[in-house]
């Protein structure tokens, strides 16, 4: 596990928690796929909240010189995917998250405790 990616994942988890995202999960998927080292999964209470979570992550990370490579789904805002290279952030509405069930799909991934992000 790359310390820089781990630290950035913890920062994203904290940003989501501060912005009142629901059911926040960090998954280490680096041993299961070449797509990314970490997935961050969270839910918003509405499409407006989902967009604001995406905007907050973009703004806070840009302050540190970290910029998103690609964003998908922003206009519909039922599932926004943010690609940070080694980290992929998935922000869902509750119904979309239940439908796609990424946690079940990546059930073998190691979960990163949110407490680790909040203790900083």
From TrEMBL:
Any idea which UniProt keywords this protein has? Cytoplasm, Repressor, Translation regulation
Entry GO terms, CC: cytoplasm
What is its biological role? Functions as a ribosomal silencing factor. Interacts with ribosomal protein uL14 (rplN), blocking formation of intersubunit bridge B8. Prevents association of the 30S and 50S ribosomal subunits and the formation of functional ribosomes, thus repressing translation.
Note whether Cytoplasm occurs among the keywords. Answer: yes
- What NCBIfam families does its record include? rsfS_iojap_ybeB
User: What is the recorded name of this protein?
Assistant: Ribosomal silencing factor RsfS
Among InterPro entries, the record links this protein to: Iojap/RsfS/C7orf30 (IPR004394), NT_sf (IPR043519)
Report a single Gene Ontology molecular function: ribosomal large subunit binding
Taxonomic lineage is: Bacteria, Bacillati, Bacillota, Clostridia, Thermoanaerobacterales
What is the superkingdom listed in this entry's lineage? Answer: Bacteria
Q: Which family does it belong to?
A: Belongs to the Iojap/RsfS family.
Q: Which gene produces this protein? A: rsfS
**Oligomeric state and partners?**
Interacts with ribosomal protein uL14 (rplN).
Q: Name one GO biological process term.
A: negative regulation of translation
Q: Which HAMAP family match?
A: Iojap_RsfS
Chief site of localization: cytoplasm
| Organism of derivation | Thermoanaerobacterium aotearoense SCUT27
Pfam families, alphabetically?
RsfS (PF02410)
Q: Where in the cell is it found?
A: Cytoplasm
Q: Which residues form the signal peptide?
A: none
């Amino acid at each position: 596990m790359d310390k820089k990616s781990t630290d950035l994942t913890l920062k994203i988890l904290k940003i989501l928690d501060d912005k009142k995202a629901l059911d926040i999960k960090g998954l280490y998927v680096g041993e299961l796929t070449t797509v990314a080292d970490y997935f961050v999964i969270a839910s918003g209470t509405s499409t407006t909240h989902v967009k604001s979570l995406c905007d907050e992550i973009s703004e806070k990370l840009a302050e540190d010189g970290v910029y998103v490579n690609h964003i998908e789904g922003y206009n519909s805002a039922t599932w926004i995917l943010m690609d940070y290279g080694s980290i992929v952030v998935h922000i869902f509405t509750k119904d979309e998250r239940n439908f796609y069930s990424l946690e079940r799909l990546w059930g073998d991934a190691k979960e990163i405790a949110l407490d680790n992000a909040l203790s900083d």
